[in-house]
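# nightly structure sweep
# worker-07 picked up a monomer target from the shared queue
# config: single-sequence mode, recycle default, output format = structure tokens
# input follows
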Amino acid sequence: MFLTFAGLSNAVAQQQSSGTAPVGSAPGVSKDGVAPGATAGADPATGGGDAAAIAAGDALFKNNCAQCHAVNDVVVGPALKDITKRRPISWLIPWIKNSSKVVASGDEYAVKLFNQYQKQQMPSFQLSDAEITSIISYISAESGKGSTADQGGVTAGNVNATDGKDAAADDTAGAGQYVNVLLIVLVVVLIVLVVTLVIIANIMKDVLRGRKDLDGRDVELMEQRFDYSKIYKSNIVRGLAVTVFTLAILYESVQAAMGVGLTQGYQPTQPIAFSHKLHAGTNQINCSYCHTSVYKSKSANIPSANICMNCHSQIKTESPEIRKIYRAIEKKQPIQWVRIHNLPDLAYFNHSQHTQVGGIECQTCHGPIQNMEVVYQYSALTMGWCINCHRETPLNTKGNGYYNNLVKLHDKANSAAPFTVSSNGGTECSKCHY
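# output follows
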């Protein structure tokens, strides 16, 4: 009975998982998020935009604008929702390229905006008109989404985008709870049955002991006891116990020796409570905004206090943690951040070679940094870990003439295997030790 109910529970769980709609999908909406019949080439000024332009604008916005702006919230600068309804694109393009020049020209709206935000100067951006237009397309698309409460649902029949999903989730939870209750009741019944059988057996023994018509064999069977001492006194059992104990000690000793010098999971307390989850996750600030050398230097630098002040000269200026930054600037002393990721001096590592040339994402080595309140060392950073990555990671050789002959030689020798970092000498000793 127990196995039957367990199988039933498993079947229900599989049925629920296979019958649940994909997260983020809604009836009548395609994978691209475009409703059937909707046009993809709408004017950005009207809240539409080409899908490719919106995607490009999303990336440009996060890399250049998200540090100071959000679509629906005021950050350092104003919220950008429906910006095309307040200003035409012909005004926005020169403003983004050089806001100081527009303010200096005496433009009434620009001067009012400049004074409204404490004369905080927006930096100039070397972006093309097409890039700025794509950013505006992204902002217009985000503005058109609005909030869930404002949208009122997908259709006019009082069915919003989450009703179907929530109903399915409620049904799933109800069925799961029903099966769990049945399993719990079954376990309780089995325990009661076992206890009852033990009680009945003891009662029967007491009844039999009171009978005088039992022969010697019956009495022997009734009074027999299992001799547990034979088990632990057995040479075989003792030998197995000693072997298992010895193997466990050897295993733990080897693991301890292999872990010497490893700091995976290291999470020190920093002098200032800085949350990557808030900055990189919630506010989507690009890593290179603070770690300015992450794509162009051998090492990823620790940001200076001045970079913090780009935002915190206006945001949470009275916070006790932010006041620590002010004190460091006033004393002209660097903040004593505690280094987390360390490699031995005998190993050469170039950060830009991996991020810029190799196109490696930050999360590949540093883990889900955008979800960390306090940063910790996510990866092992051992030699074996690096070599495995070099063996498994294919190189992007397209459009790079340097690799042409190397790829030909590789394909000639082993065309079935991809051209990886290892194929380019990435596992040679001298690559990292010289």
